[in-house]
Structure formats: C-alpha cells, structure tokens
Amino acid sequence: MRKERLIKEFYNLKVKDLMDRRSWDLPVVDKDTDIATILSIVSGKNHVWVVDDKKNMRLIGVITEHDLLSLLSPPHLPPYMFGKPDLRSLQFGMVSKAEEIMSKRPVTCKADEKIYDILLRMKKYRVRRLAVIDNKGRLIGEITLHHLICKYYRACQYHEITEEK
C-alpha cells in the first residue's frame, strides 16, 4: 500500500519541484555559437540548449550527441543507398554554428506540469531531458530522467527507513 502511495505522490509532483534551475550550470549557447564550443560543452553535458540570444533566452533548439553524429560521420553513402550525403558533415565544411546543426523542435514542458505527464512525454519522444520554458518560450531550466530517478530513489530510501521504525 505504501509503494502505491509513493508512486502516486511522485507522479503528482510538479516539474518546478525537481527541475534544475542553476542557470550558471545549464548548458546554453546562442544560435551563432561556433562548432568547437558546442563540441566542448556536449562532451561534458551530452546536450546543449540553443537560444536565439542569451538576453531573452527564447529556446529555439537543442543539440545532443545524436545530432553530432551527422556532423562527425563521413559524408559518403554506400552504393546501395540513393540520395545525397548529409551536407552537415564536417568534411563538407558547411556547418559553422549552432543553428545549422541543432534540432529545431526541442521537447519542452512547463514548470507547473506534473511528473506523470512529462514522463509520458519523455517516453513518447524517446528523450531523456526536457527544457523547462515559461509562457513566452524562454528557457528557465531543465528536467532530466536522471533527476527523476534520483528523486524517486531517495523517496524509496526514505520510506524504507520510516517503515523500519
């Protein structure tokens, strides 16, 4: 019975209760940031949020390790495939800034949404992180699957301790 209550309480938590608000640690670049800077950030954070500019923080994209696969992979196609090679490859030199490699539709959420809803969204879009935006589309934080796992684990540990008493 306690585990059912625990998961229900967890699902009803709001994003604002668990999201990372540390703006100094949030991986954010503006749309004109060069590729070398992006590679540096993604090598440590696995992703970077792209905003139109850092003053207004309006979210316009995200770059993940998966996006960088196109950038780093060879541009040629095997003979059995038709079509054009990905021109975003570094070998063509056609990519020089963030907006040219970013995914233009990052999956987002609002701070007042329930964890239940954002977990369904993460599963549907097969993503491990969501940008938290305000009503004007400005980036105010992020929530990751890692945050959710840690919170649920700590709640389970706490409930086990209180059950023993």
Describe what you observe in this structure.
This protein is an alpha/beta fold. It has a single domain (2-164), classed as CBS-domain (Roll), CATH 3.10.580.10. It has 6 helices and 6 strands. It has helices at residues 2-12, 15-18, 35-45, 65-72, 115-125, 145-164; strands at 28-30, 47-51, 59-64, 108-109, 129-133, 139-144. Strand 4, helix 5 (115-125) and strand 5 (129-133) form a beta-alpha-beta unit. The radius of gyration is 19 Å and the shape is elongated. The two termini are 17 Å apart.
Helix fraction bin: 25-40%
Which stretches are low in confidence, meaning pLDDT under 50 for 5 or more residues running?
Answer: none
Overall mean pLDDT stands at 84
N-end to C-end Cα span: 17 Å
Q: How many helices in DSSP terms? A: 6
CATH superfamily: CBS-domain
CATH topology descriptor: CBS-domain
Strand order of the largest sheet: 1-2-3
User: Helix/strand-derived class?
Assistant: alpha/beta
The major β-sheet equals: 3 strands, mixed
Overall CATH architecture = Roll
Strand content: 15-25%
What oligomeric state is this? single chain
Topology, number of strands: 6
Q: Given this structure, which CATH class is correct?
A: Alpha Beta
Shape by Cα distribution: elongated
In brief, what are we looking at here?
With 165 residues, this protein is an alpha/beta fold.
Key features?
6 strands; 3-stranded mixed sheet; elongated; 6 helices; CBS-domain; alpha/beta; 165 residues; single chain
Q: Helices and strands in order, then pairings?
A:
Blueprint: H1 2-12, H2 15-18, E1 28-30, H3 35-45, E2 47-51, E3 59-64, H4 65-72, E4 108-109, H5 115-125, E5 129-133, E6 139-144, H6 145-164
Parallel strand pairs: 1-2, 4-5
Antiparallel strand pairs: 2-3, 5-6
